[in-house]
Amino acid sequence: MKGDIFQAIADPTRRAILVLIAAQSMTPNALAEHFDTSRQAVSKHIKVLADCDLVKQNKVGREIHYYFNPVKMKEFDHWLTQFKKHWEDRFSQLDELLINLNSSPNEK
Amino acid sequence: MKSNLLMNFSVDKENNRVKVEREFAAPVGKVWAAWTQSELLDQWWAPRPWKARTKSMDFRVGGSWLYAMVGPEGEEHWAKVEYKTIDPQQKFTANDAFCDENGTINNEFAQALWTNTFTEANGTTTVSVAIQYDKLEDLEQMIEMGFKEGFTMALGNLDELLDK
Fold first, then answer.
1. Do A83 and B155 touch (CB under 8 A)?
2. How far is B28 from B24, CA to CA, in rounded Å?
């Protein structure tokens, strides 16, 4: 995997592309119609998404169809969810500790 | 106990940074102590069922905290926090790394620079944690590691691993 998922989804146009092709696979032309930018610009975005495996392509006859590959996204979400839970658990333990500290008079 | 205190969480991809912000219902002195004294850190730093166990703590610029995360089966994962700057009760920065029990840093894993800021208002203290990676690849590595033991441990979620 060459690309970086964080960088890939940091861009709003690329996120919009993902939303579109997550609903249904699309040809480059059909995709480009949804954006005010040039077809080349859209292709560039697709390349970034493809480089980190978020987008895959499928040849149907002579046409290319792009489709969304959610595996990477799941990894990302999974990680974020876990990471967040880790901190939440940690902090609720700290809450409990602070209640005990609050009821003790010494500041040290 | 479910807390209703504010918690913000964000990933800043532009700057390879993860940010966590949280309010605590205690004055800054208590919160600062909980983050900087090992006997207190040991009581909350590891998400259950893991426990943090301090081997050594020297909370000074240039000093470090060497501790193990100890799992329910007694498995140990060591980490080291090296303190870079300290402004008492306001802010400290530290380098965070995986290591062995002697504190020898394991360079296979990305290290991160932590900036922890403490601000008190009306008896409530807000702690802001920024975890800064050198490069996006490091953050990416953390994700890819998410399915490996070391990081699953770090996320306090061993059950999933054992189910694999």
1. yes
2. 9
B156 contacts A87? CB cut-off 8 A: no
CB contact at 8 A, A54 and A66: no
Over residues B17-30, the pLDDT tens digits come to 888 888 888 999 99
Domains in chain B: ranges and CATH = 7-163 (3.30.530.20)
- Write the pLDDT tens digit of every residue in A31-71: 999 998 888 999 999 999 999 888 999 998 999 999 988 77
Question: Do the Cβ atoms of A92 and B2 come within 8 Å?
Answer: yes
Q: Which chain A residues have a beta carbon less than 8 Å from that of B29?
A: 107
Helix axis angle for A71-102 and B28-36, nearest 10°, is 120
CATH annotation of A5-70:
1.10.10.10
